[in-house]
């Protein structure tokens, strides 16, 4: 079981994500999030999936696309750090990614399949890393970070956004 990273293993702006991860086997959690996300959005129509809970906020589809895009970036960081690459990795502008994602033109099912595919690839990488790889340190978004911290950030980011989907999107859609 991969141990929880220490606070000095990642930038403090990632702390809310790491803190959301329960003390369970991380690989199991990552795998279970695929089905959790599918179940969460299974009853959402194409019209409902374009819902925005406030002006200027992302649509439900855009949130789902954001989870997948962020995981792509974080998995890449995980690969680089775990393989010992010390090259500083830049941050990314999430709003720019969402604006150019075309998520609202895709079906909710396509976006769910995309998230599942990205997560399966992340799990494949996750399962090939040994104890030494998990503790390697790289530099991303202006902060030193370990591979294991990145894995926790991936899981916590999904938890965070699935919570937002439940609380701000699906509850409002059900009230309509």
UniProtKB/TrEMBL annotation:
DinB-like domain boundaries: 30-165
Pfam families found in the cross-reference section: DinB_2
Domain of life: Bacteria
The protein's name in its UniProt record: DinB family protein
Record organism: Paenibacillus brevis
Upper classification of the organism: Bacteria, Bacillati, Bacillota, Bacilli, Bacillales
């Amino acid at each position: 079981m991969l141990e929880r990273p220490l606070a000095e293993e990642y930038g403090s702006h990632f702390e809310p994500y790491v803190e959301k991860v329960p003390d369970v086997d991380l690989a199991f959690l990552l795998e279970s999030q695929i089905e959790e996300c599918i179940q969460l959005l299974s009853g959402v129509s194409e019209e409902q999936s374009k819902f925005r809970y406030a002006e200027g906020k992302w649509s439900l589809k855009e949130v789902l696309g954001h989870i997948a895009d962020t995981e792509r970036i974080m998995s890449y960081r995980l690969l680089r750090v775990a393989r010992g690459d010390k090259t500083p990795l830049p941050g990314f502008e999430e709003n720019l990614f969402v604006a150019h994602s075309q998520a609202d033109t895709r079906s909710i099912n396509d976006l769910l399949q995309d998230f599942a595919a990205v997560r399966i690839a992340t799990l494949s990488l996750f399962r090939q890393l040994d104890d030494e790889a998990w503790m390697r340190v790289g530099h991303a978004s202006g902060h030193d970070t370990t591979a294991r911290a990145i894995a926790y950030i991936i899981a916590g980011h999904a938890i965070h956004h699935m919570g937002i989907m439940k609380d701000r999107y699906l509850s409002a859609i059900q009230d309509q």
